[in-house]
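Below is one such protein, fold included:
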Amino acid sequence: MFGKVYDEVAGNKDKYEVGVVKLTETGEVVSKLEEELKIFSVEVEEKKKKADATAEVVGVEKAKVEIENAKAEDEAAKCLVIKTTVEAKMKSVQADLDQALPLVEKAKKALDGLNVSHFRDLKALKSPPKDIEKTFTAALHLLCKYHPQVPVDAKGKLKTDNPWKTALSLMGNPQQFLDILIGFKA
């Protein structure tokens, strides 16, 4: 019995010695890990500070980007309004042009029928019919920017008290006046 107890105590003693050795080794490993943890915690704290600083910069930049984005959206909305307005005006102008082109063609054909003798006949009139006077007044308005003898104001608009008298002065040379009108239509 003594031998049995002795073997048991010897086995326990070996187990305790192995346990003490393992505890010692574990304590050393734990102390090394604690030292590494201290180093890592310092590094982590530095990285955390850097990340916080970066996050702050990113936040400021994000706010700037959001402001610029809002401005860009406002400009895009304004541009859309302008685009819509321009497209509407383009349609209106095109419609006006489509209506005017046949009238221009008709006027060109009418000019083709003119000759010098018509202007000589007109020069003989001291007081022409109203339609003829209106026609020559319109011609003077058209020619005021192109013919140096047509009197104009500072804004380049026709300036005359008697358009028929002004037209007569331009018809001093009927062939030249006809050439001006024909040249204007081209």
Summary: The two ends are 140 Å apart (CA to CA).
